[in-house]
Amino acid sequence: MEFEDEFANLLADEELDSFDGFLHPLTTFDEVPLYSRYSQLDFLTPLTRPEANAWLVRAAVTYVERLAADVADRADDFFCMVSITGWEEYRDDGFLTPSIWYTRPGNGVLDHLDLTAATGPEARFAAEAIAGTDGARVLTSTASAAHPFSIERLYVTVPAMPLPG
């Protein structure tokens, strides 16, 4: 992966370089952003903004694939995927914010998301960004879309961590 050392540094900055943090007790869900400061993305300046955003989405998906493989062997009740926010900024040539969204399926949170295949230009962008990841799916939540104050968000699932049920 391009920028591999820089990505490792970013993960260390965000304390995401160990998967152990995802194993703590959780009553609903958590959503951990891949970065917290724009300055952490300075290494992406050689890329155009669309290229940088595609790289961020791919990097998050790669991370979730590794997380899924590691934690699935150590936790019985675990599910993770990528969530992508920042679409208003993206449309203004800003950065997307990929996050690691995770939960314990036994708590019922996934039942309320009502995830379905995403459509539209943002979904096409995300699908193109992850085109090399066989079996990855770009989804949206019809439950959150109906909420008047919801943040525009897409989700990406990976084959190593299929949706339960």
Which helices and strands appear, and what pairs or packs with what?
Layout: H1 4-13, E1 29-33, H2 49-72, E2 79-85, H3 87-91, E3 97-103, H4 109-113, E4 115-117, H5 121-129, E5 137-141, H6 142-145, E6 154-157
Antiparallel strand pairs: 1-3, 2-3, 2-6, 4-5, 5-6
| Shape by Cα distribution | globular
H/E element order = HEHEHEHEHEHE
Strand content: 15-25%
Provide the number of structural domains.
1
Give the strand order of the largest sheet, numbering strands 1, 2, ... along the chain: 1-3-2-6-5-4
- Share in helix: 25-40%
Describe the 3D structure.
- The chain has helices at 4-13, 49-72, 87-91, 109-113, 121-129, 142-145, and strands spanning 29-33, 79-85, 97-103, 115-117, 137-141, 154-157.
- It is α+β, with helices and mostly antiparallel strands and 165 residues long.
- The chain has one domain (4-157).
- The chain has a 6-stranded antiparallel β-sheet with strand order 1-3-2-6-5-4.
- Helix 2 crosses helix 5 (121-129).
- The N and C termini lie far apart (33 Å).
